[in-house]
Write a structure and sequence with these properties.
The chain has 13 helices and 4 strands. It is mostly helical.
């Protein structure tokens, strides 16, 4: 399907950041997002669910309270905007087919809740908790818990009862998820079985809540892209602790015999993107936060005048393990200043 041309496509990053969100004028129609939404609707139909969530472009992913629809972030509607998102955030959330579908299934769970209000039922509350519970600013998940399904990163189901339901619904909805086998013996299986029973009961009925409202549509957002990204980057800001010296000195060397070996700071800079992506993938931590940790490690390597002797391949493996361990410690250790931001 031909892509609509926009005047801002040819702008430099600096010029594009000066544009207001409302001036982008991108839409779902005519983009790859249409195929994703079509697939979502086919999955809902296959499960006998009458709801077809409406979708629109906004600043981020969300499904508004009492509105059975899905807001999709603007950057996914155009390759140029995805490129800018990658530069500013080091990642593009929902930027691949599989990740986009995973998020859409999650948001569809919220849309189902907004349409039929199952949180009012006693059994829903017994399994998931009170929907009225206040959303926390941060949450501390237990990665080993079997009371929750595992769908989106950072054990998101553990953040709030509504997110628990949306995550459970997403696992249940995904074709060929084999959830009965995957979660056999887990307490979370009760939630999946409940969703299966609930949707068999209400999925084929006409939802009482069918608002087609579009909350915070792109054309109503007056902030510039620069303002948008300053706020988004600040959300993930993190000042890493100065506790790396011992570990870095064990991995690298300050021995004068290795003075001709490459600088450890240069080694980290050369491999930082690869290592950062790997650690983000397996820990769920945001790449911007990891980048702040890597910046601090590079600085400490310079100040300690550390060198990187020996096998580069082995050093990459060991440094990746070190960063993963530090990240896990940072995310779940008792001394963390704050837990995972919601």
């Amino acid at each position: 399907m031909p892509t609509r041309k926009y005047a801002w496509e040819a702008l430099s990053d600096e010029q594009l950041l000066e544009q207001r969100l409302s001036s982008l004028k991108v839409k779902v129609e005519g983009t790859w997002l249409e195929d994703c939404l079509r697939t979502l609707n086919e999955e809902l139909q296959a499960k006998g669910i009458r709801l077809r969530p409406h979708a629109w472009i906004s600043s981020e992913w969300f499904s508004p309270a009492d509105v059975p629809g899905i807001a999709i972030p603007f950057y996914l509607a155009h390759p140029r905007l995805m490129k800018l998102e990658k530069k500013m955030m080091l990642d593009v959330e929902g930027g691949t087919w599989s990740e986009c579908m995973a998020i859409l299934r999650h948001e569809a769970g919220h849309a189902v809740q907004h349409a039929w209000q199952p949180q009012r039922r006693r059994r829903w509350q017994q399994l998931f908790g009170p929907s009225s519970k206040r959303y926390p600013r941060h949450y501390r998940p237990n990665p080993a818990s079997r009371r929750f399904v595992q769908h989106l990163r950072l054990w998101y189901a553990q953040s709030h009862p509504d997110e628990d339901f949306a995550e459970t619904f997403a696992v249940w909805l995904r074709p060929r998820s084999n959830w009965r086998t995957r979660y056999a013996g887990w307490p979370a299986l009760q939630k999946l079985e409940y969703v299966d029973e609930l949707m068999a009961e209400i999925g084929g009925t006409r939802p009482p809540g069918l608002s087609r409202e579009r909350v915070d549509p792109l054309h109503s957002l007056s902030q510039t892209l620069a303002e948008h990204y300053r706020k988004k980057q600040a959300f993930y800001a993190f000042t890493p602790p100065k506790t790396y010296d011992r570990d870095l000195s064990r991995l690298f060397s300050a021995d004068p015999r290795h003075r001709r070996a490459p600088a450890a700071s240069a080694f980290i800079r050369r491999h930082r993107a690869q290592i950062r992506q790997l650690v983000a993938r397996w820990t769920g931590e945001n790449q911007l936060t990891l980048d702040a940790v890597l910046d601090d490690m590079i600085l400490r390597c310079r100040e300690l005048d550390l060198r990187a002797p020996g096998s580069e391949r082995k050093l990459v493996i060991n440094f990746t393990i070190l960063l993963t361990a530090k990240t896990t410690q940072m995310m779940f250790g008792p001394s963390r200043r704050k837990w995972i931001a919601l």
